[in-house]
Amino acid sequence: MTPAIAVTGASGRIGGRVARRLAGAGVSQLLLGRDPARLPELPGAVKAPPASYGDAEAMRAAVDGAGTLFLVSAHEAPGRVREHKTAVDAALAAGAERIVYVSLLGAAPDATFTFARDHWHTEQYIRSTGVRHTFLRDSFYQAALPAMTGKDGVIRGPAGEGRVSAVAHEDIADAAAAVLLAELEGLDSHDGATYELTGPQALSFAEITRELSRATGRAISYVPQTREEAYASRAVYKAEPWEVQGWVSSYEAMANGEMEAVSDDVPRLTGRPATTFAEFLRENPDSYRHLAG
């Protein structure tokens, strides 16, 4: 039997896509999630007992028997790094020998985008354990760009004239599957590698809204904000301060050039070009359904 790969977040947009690709390759896998009822039915896949990252005992039971842990980062929260550490420790205690972690482009201890700091600390912890590892630093998701557009057809934020090399979920899943399967196929194990998974170009918000306008058939525009304006306009959501800071600082990271790097890692890992934003919109009309004219 092929050593099992434990796929976390297997009911989500990244984990679910990766799980389907591994099933298609005939690989045995454990599917992890807090609600097993939401996990997909896939050949060669076993649904693990319910587990959340912060529950060490449940995580250890869920990943038991897996040689590799595919760790999709937890939802943003003040204790996210602690949850990641607990999940890593549980996997190692259960016998996992390799971790492939879904990180973020620009991860750094002093990153402008506050959530990117969590990813850096998680990477550092995984390194400190000595476990074999690979990091997949994803850029901003292409699917997020239509979602951050208001029903009035306006994107508002303090991104200035910054650019973002947004990437498609399908590209992330294809790259992740290539990394996970390589060793099983006798290829490069990718141990110690850090890959930057980006789109093929870095777009300004003027270019992003131009593509959205073409796709939706209505005028979509970008209104740059100051930091003060950005916080004030988001007060209506009554979100926690740390969450609003994450929203606002993501735009500021773009303004500072921290999300504009373009890498060839997607085509190198997948053997095909990365998806452009225009292609993403053509293939995913539901992503902008709320904006369609």
From TrEMBL:
Top-level division of the source organism's lineage: Bacteria
InterPro entries: NAD(P)-bd_dom, NAD(P)-bd_dom_sf, NmrA-type_oxidoreductase
Protein name, per record: NAD(P)-dependent oxidoreductase
NAD(P)-binding domain ranges (all copies): 9-180
